[in-house]
Amino acid sequence: MNVSVIGTGDIGSQLARSIAVAQHSLTMANSRGPETLDRLAAELLARAATTADAVVDADVIVLSIPFAKMPSLAEDLTRAPASAVIVDMSNYYALAGVVDGLEHDDPSSAWVSEQIGRPVIKAWNTIFSRSLALKREAPGTPERLALPVAGDDVVAKATVMQLVEDTGFDAVDAGSLADSWRMQPGTPAYCTDLDAAALRAALARADRSRMAVDAAAEIAAVYRPGTGIDMVNGVEIYRNITA
Ligand SMILES: NC(=O)c1ccc[n+]([C@@H]2O[C@H](COP(=O)([O-])OP(=O)(O)OC[C@H]3O[C@@H](n4cnc5c(N)ncnc54)[C@H](OP(=O)(O)O)[C@@H]3O)[C@@H](O)[C@H]2O)c1
Predict the structure, then answer these.
(1) Smaller CB count within 10 Å for the chain: N or C?
(2) pTM (predicted TM-score)
(3) Which residues in the chain land under pLDDT 70?
(4) What is the rounded average pLDDT for all residues in the chain?
(5) Total structural domains in the chain?
(6) Which atom, in ligand 1's list, is nearest to the CA of 65?
(7) Residue-range definition of the domain harbouring residue 134
């Protein structure tokens, strides 16, 4: 499959690595231009491109840029094939930039879809980059971690679920895009490194009325100005807050 990863920062670069390891044909783009990706592209045997070029012949396009920057991709995405599956792995929370009129418990991927003018599948947003790098396992490994995947098109969702499996995690169907608030910051499924059975239970017990408060508590507990998110202790902290 031709997979394009747009955004190669903390988590996008790690996802790109996992996709390359899974032997998919990989193209990467960032905001500064392909020449800044030469070293990573050589290491991963991948192609570096502008965003506009990266989407042209992609089967799957993963958007791994900050939430508030998503509207800036709308024009380039008009060049993507109609059949391309677009994946949103962003999260909406205060540090990512507040959008007027968008509440924390709204399905944020629906807003992304509106902004870019394309349907999206939501995936890989519920795992810290550290866990994505260190905790991938082969299929069938006992207690293999699982990631939720949400979206409205069943064929596109199945494609992304297979890619999630390829990157080392069980894929759990988390329902439609409207249901995807259950996998956003402040819910028990978010960045808590669960296996498939525990993840299904976590999605089911998500409580919309407390997720804004819990998300704020999560960030207050793990964010360190200057060094960013404490991902070493973050999983345990998030589990405790959303217990
Ligand atoms: N970090 C995590 O553990 C984690 C976990 C789950 C989900 N996420 C989500 O994943 C997304 C990326 O997070 P991150 O931590 O990797 O952020 P990051 O380290 O700040 O990286 C952001 C990347 O997006 C690129 N970018 C920004 N605007 C762009 C544009 N208009 N066109 C093309 N590329 C653009 C940047 O390009 P340059 O490199 O040129 O600056 C950079 O490569 C966010 O939505 C975040 O909520 C992150």
Answers:
(1) C
(2) 0.98
(3) none
(4) 97
(5) 1
(6) 24
(7) 2-241
